[in-house]
Amino acid sequence: MTRKVLIFGWDGVPVRIINEAIEKGFLKNFSRLVGEGVYGAIDAVLPIVTPANWYSAFTGVKVDKHGVPNFVVIDRDYRLRYMSISDLKVPGLWDYIGSQGMKGIYVNIPISTPPPKINGIWIADEEVMKDPEPYHVHPNELLEEVRRLGYKIGYPPILGYPREFSKGIREVEDRKINVFYELLRRYEWNLAIYIARSPDYLLHYFLDRPNYMDEIFTTLKHLDRWLGKFMDDFGEETSYIVFSDHGNKVKRGYINLLSILSKTDLLSLRNRRRLKASWLRRSSIVRSFWGMLSLGFRTKISRTILDRFLEIDSPTRIITSQINWSGTKVFPLFNVGGLKVNIAGQYKYGCIDFEEKEKIIKNTLQLLKSVKVEGKEIFRDIEVISSNDPYIPDILVEVDEELWFINVAGGNDVSPLIPDMLDDNKRIDINTSRVADHIREGF
Questions:
Q1: CATH number listed for the domain at residues 4-249
Q2: Which among 32, 57, 206, 248 is most buried, taking Cβ atoms within 10 Å?
Q3: Model pTM?
Q4: How far apart are CA 350 and CA 348, in angstroms?
């Protein structure tokens, strides 16, 4: 009998939380798996973000080779571009499996719409919750079956009261995994992959909050029950791999790359007054509505008056209208530590000749290494890629684990992160309630 492999991804879970969950008895099946196999910490690649790391795991190469560094990047015309699995430049595990005549079942792999035409079944992921459409399911003949089983694309928007939000996330995850399980039972497969993204959503808002850590452990316990069901039903002829793409940690502040670059001749900001936060931008109703839109749709209206002037999206997102592109030498390609040289001919208003690129990168590195907080350098790791691909950064930076990235014109280089206090009677705010973000160490 051909041996099978089942990969169960737990997005964003740090090894510290796994160890604590094991000690508290929440992960009985995972503990059983550990006893029969190997277990330890993993180290994410840069940038420390979901698409970059899952696709590195499934292709075996870093972002400069596979081509999907983030959910969103800035394109040649300085517009926000939504990335997808279609941007992969190298084969994935599913391609190797298919080339050997074997079949796979792949469900909920991030930004995988439209799914590749593989030998097997694929239900794609997208950044908004909706019923599956033909462009989410391969082969299309399975669409009605997937709908009847109750599958939902995406996850609930980040809003509502904390426990209500947690319950909704878990219910959607359980429904997704149940469909995955039914497909495993009904169809032939050699490799199966499911990515559970619910832990990362909850860790961002509840990590180390005493009143809500139980929501994180309850979610992990749900995933552990499914792991046990897989192990019991698919037996010893199947190998099981459970791992995360990165970890999470509570942050104490933001590092503002846009501010740092704009204080030199490397980046130029538009000479206009940046609007102060208005009642509309602070409105929970507007934020809630915005959170229900797909990330792809938000990028399509990124240059409208609404987005440009109200700036109601995440504060860690780049507002492209703030930058004077014709006077900018280096810019954040995306919001998590990727920098790109503004090369003439590669970008619409590129002002740097290709021969100058190495010099600009050198000047940027010197600037980054000079940035210190309390006498300590805050950039832990800097990788120079110098890619000719417009969607791949020339420089990748890792910031101190207690900080995270923000890109706001006119802001401070470093600013404190002071999240909202949460209680059962206070609604979550997608921006101000966030307490934790990504670190390299997963499990």
A1: 3.40.720.10
A2: 248
A3: 0.90
A4: 6
